[in-house]
């Protein structure tokens, strides 16, 4: 058997490092197997968008920042999450859920959705200003969903395929709606226009708070063990750059100015490198 070439060794190292970030390798967790019996067909819009490693990391950071502007979603995280000590674990579990429901066998996807629904039943409590919150509230789930969907797609458009046709963008929302419906979200957008309309309508549900700003800083400063500081900063800057202006203001964040172009260039370079590495497998 011939020895692997330096190029092949580099590919393996890159793929291994990425899988170590997204999978709990210490407990033996491996990558999600790609299935031809998934909820969505191969090469369909949702599978293309969610296959982009770097755009999904940028989109994941952006979506979490947006979600923390909803008082109910924020309080659920504060009361029922160990995000302060394990932010990476939370992001990794979210990434695992997205991978299973997008690429895994449909039975595994539906079990993952059922598991999240069971967890959500216990995530409830009181809001600081009065009233109660519940993770099963359809409108709160709608905000979490639309924040994720728009963030993943916006990052994909920014760093992979800016010329993605409008009909494929709409199909992405229609496909992602299958998961949102199963989680109990309502309303759920099924086109790009509906997503933007829902984002605008739900602005009145959002609020700025010291707690939201604290979580934002943790999201942007904590990094996985072994991840280079420069990578974490570039991904964070790229996510902040893609936020709507009102969200940056509410979270006390500034749009990267002098660092915006270098961050975009570094993020695009990482995206292209990892697309090359995974495309060869």
UniProtKB/TrEMBL annotation:
InterPro entries: MPAB/Lcp_cat_dom (IPR018713). Residues 49-270 form the ER-bound oxygenase mpaB/mpaB'/Rubber oxygenase catalytic domain. It comes from the Bacteria. This is ER-bound oxygenase mpaB/mpaB'/Rubber oxygenase catalytic domain-containing protein. It comes from Tsuneonella deserti.
